[in-house]
Design a protein that fits this description.
Elements: E1 6-9, H1 11-19, H2 24-34, E2 39-43, H3 44-56, H4 65-74, E3 84-85, H5 104-111, H6 118-126, H7 138-146, E4 151-153, E5 163-164, E6 167-170, H8 172-180
Parallel strand pairs: 1-2, 1-4, 2-3, 4-6
Antiparallel strand pairs: 5-6
Helix pairs in contact: 1-2, 1-3, 2-8, 5-6
């Protein structure tokens, strides 16, 4: 890999790293801290989802504020306020019924302020509609496009497109292999 790829990390990566400190997810976070492997992008919505999952339970285990803080300290500076990226939408976009049957790329184009016209060409080719994906994860596609990411890393690939525009969706294990080979 010639340039450091920009990679949006999903909540599944953070949760997986917390639950299993020796996991690929945790190793990906440690590579991000090294700063030479890739440029991590973590959105504010991902951080909020992570904290929510910690408090409500991940795999039946709830985490105290002290446990969340300890994890936060281990992965510093990734979760520091100045490292967390803002995006143009939160999770309220699910109310936009008008998007329901539109191509997913067209929806992301609209939600990113109509600044990424390459998505419209991709929309004609993919045929994937907003109603075909988990609508609560649309924020990830928007964040990946807005922050010019090369990859969206998530363990939950079943309800997402393989990519959107130039962004490829990749599982943590495949990403780790790509970065360390």
């Amino acid at each position: 890999m010639s340039k450091r790829p920009r990679i949006l990390l999903d909540t599944t990566v953070l949760c997986g790293a917390l639950v299993q400190p020796n996991s690929i997810n945790f190793k990906l976070l440690m590579l991000a801290r090294a700063a030479s492997f890739y440029e991590p992008i973590i959105s504010e919505v991902v951080v909020v989802e992570f904290i929510k999952h910690c408090r409500l339970g991940i795999g039946g285990i709830t985490y105290s504020e002290e446990e969340i803080d300890r994890f936060w300290n281990v992965v510093t500076p990734l979760l520091e306020p100045e490292s967390i990226e803002r995006i143009s939408i939160g999770r309220r976009y699910a109310e936009y019924v008008k998007f329901y049957v539109k191509p997913i790329e067209e929806v992301v184009y609209e939600l990113t302020g109509r600044n990424h016209s390459e998505l419209l060409d991709a929309a004609r080719a993919s045929g994937l509609k907003y109603c075909d994906i988990d609508s609560h994860d649309l924020h990830l596609l928007v964040a990946a496009v807005e922050h010019l990411c090369d990859y969206l890393c998530t363990a939950n690939v079943n309800d997402r497109p393989e990519g959107i525009g130039a962004v490829k969706v990749i599982k943590p294990g495949a990403l780790y292999g790509l970065l360390t080979d």
